[in-house]
Amino acid sequence: MSGLRVNSFFHGNSSGVNFYIILNPIDEETGKLQVSNCSGSKTAGDWNLSVTPGMDTSKVIIDLTRNLQLCLPNATDCCTAPLCVLETLQVLACHDSVVLAHLLIQAEIYANSSFTGNVSEDASVIPNQVFQPLGPCPCDLTDGACDVCCCCDRECTPDLKQLFNESCFTGVFGGDVNPPFNQLCSTKTDEYTPDWFPFLCVQSSLNNTPFLGYFYHGSISTPRVPSFKIPLQTSHAKVFTGYSQGDPIMTEENEYFTIPQQSMAGQCVGNAPVAYLHDIDVKCLTDLTSYKEGLPHDVRINSGTGDFIQQNVIYRTIADMGKFIAKSESLPTTEIFCQNVMFAENYTFICKDENIEGINVTVFLGRLCDGEILTQRFTAKFVSLKSNNAEELSGNPGYQVGKPVRAANMNASDTSGSLNIFQPAGRGLCTSATNTPVLFGLDSFSGCILEVGINEDCTLLRGNVTERLNSLIQATHVGKRSNSSYSDVNDWVEIIRLDPFNPNTSVSTGNLKGICPDIPANLNIRIIFADVGAVQGIPRQEILAVQTSYSTVIWQFQCGLTCENTVSFLPITASVQFIKVPAQPLIPMTRFQINYTEFDCNRNDVCWPQLFYPVTQFYTGEPYGQCLAKGLSLAFLVFLAAILSNPWFSKVWDNFLI
Q: Is-annotated flag, keyword Transit peptide (predicted)?
């Protein structure tokens, strides 16, 4: 049950099934449940029944329609007592006057404690905190009763105070809200008291304490609630004004929108929240006994502006189930049980700035039988509504971590390019390996295995390896930003290619077979990027330079007792390294700063270069004009003191008096 709504599910085929709701089905005399006779309606008292049919599961919703506010004088349609609703409900599922299932609900609902009526004129008068404490007795926690050990509680009679007079709370909590402050003459102590204290101490009453009004004139700042703490909402109000990257997507019920995802241990978690702008592509293993239905597709999503979006669901049937059935045990010859289940779900979130504009869901269904292992696949992809082509943007407009790096081939008519690394499959051979794009901010290392014979020509081997590695980089430039335009050359940086080492052809290994030096088996991709700003608090990152190079190895044929009719393996790899640098180069230190460290403010307690810091524009503690006026006044007084202390000034003054 959530709020004023009860959600339940009817498992099975709901065609021809009627649902009814009955109020107070218990006999008052016997206290037993009355016999159900499939009579009733979908409305009983203040309760309404609605059913959302599905393929194998139907959602049953029971809503309470009455007002839960406490009654004011001369008011109707309200709760006369704090216990507002105490009723018993029974929900029946009938087919041809036969009860298929029933649900018993015991509702105990109290009135809403929030007050929405007119405020009475008999309001408590809050004293002005500037002149007297706001709470003179902080330990008085119970209204109309005496709090134990709280001697300042006015509800405590003298007889009660005698019971705990020796154990009263002390300090501010016990009512001493005006403690003696350090400037009072009466608080002088022999320890840590300067000699000039009697001349500058204050004679004042404790009622005139400097703590009064200390927090009175202060600015109020609204705390920012972290993304992992969702405030409790009593109504479906607007949670926030938009999604940021990494925020969990919320539903109409103010709950997380979840898709099964893999945990750190590699297992699939069914209730994992979907994060905004984080793509998902996971595979989970299950069988018929452990199969569970996911989140219903009729759940509406919070768009980020308080509106709710319905999912656009398309159902399809799997034709080739061999791609999803990972393992099949030896099935018995007798009849086995099979069921229609979900094989895959593909979610496409259409986004615009900080809001979600639409959700398209494609569900693939198939039949799963006992003894079969199903590999379910769940994907979630965020697509920008502003993009005019099928290519997905990768940032804000700067790059975001985990998004593909954009590449272009400026030397071809079709300027679209790619920057990839290996994605091995099967036995890890290069013949079956595919490519996957380089993701921004994620250092990667992948490779595949190349089969090489003992009679392999070294020159041809170097060319074959170089060609395979070069096929990963089908581009001449890389986009600085995610929204780099193909028509603007300044939006792209050229890839600096360091060609593989060309060995000296005159050097030979003799008549030895199976040894080839200087094989460029490793491709190194280095990408330099920097933070160049921020968009709504999120750093905007741009790529500054890209370099590719090769590392060589010495390949030697490996075999067992015989080397005839066998092949050896040569692993070739591709690595990606992201290097972050400052957006602006650091100012180099001067020779004076290196040699004379006593003037370095970071290494010494006395900082002579900052002697006139208060009168410079870097000081922001006070207005610059006010600081400048104070500085000039101080300089004038110093100059005047220097003149008056000079001996010739006294002679001039004496002559002036004569």
A: no
